[in-house]
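Re: weekly structure request thread

Next one in the queue (132 aa):
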Amino acid sequence: MLKFALKLDGVASFALGLLTLLIRPEVGMPVGWQIGLGSFCVAYGAGVFFLGTRATPDRRIVLLVIIGNLVWATDSILTAGLNWFPLTGIGVALVLAQGLAVLGFAVLQFIGLRREGSATGRGTQPRSRSLA
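Done, posted below.
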């Protein structure tokens, strides 16, 4: 499930980035922000998809992806709600929809990480501390 969630996040982020860069729909966000966010999403999407192709994705990197997704989702909700940009009605809907999708990716990735940890025995036991 973890690898599926990472790949899904990667494909969706890459596609959103390409859409933003190539079409730049009128959502009320400055063009410079759209280009920056689109470029980030393309690079992020490729990286997360690559992480999902690994035999065993690095748990620390997966945790960073999950935390990043939670921050992105929170920022999306705040952006739509606090009117940081003069978003159009469609812009508000798109920002909220992608924020909720990113939150969903974070939840799927967290569940997948927990299941993988349970299956391998990692993550279920507290770390022993060395006194030396």
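Residues 2-117 form one domain. The chain has one domain: 2-117.
Next request, please.
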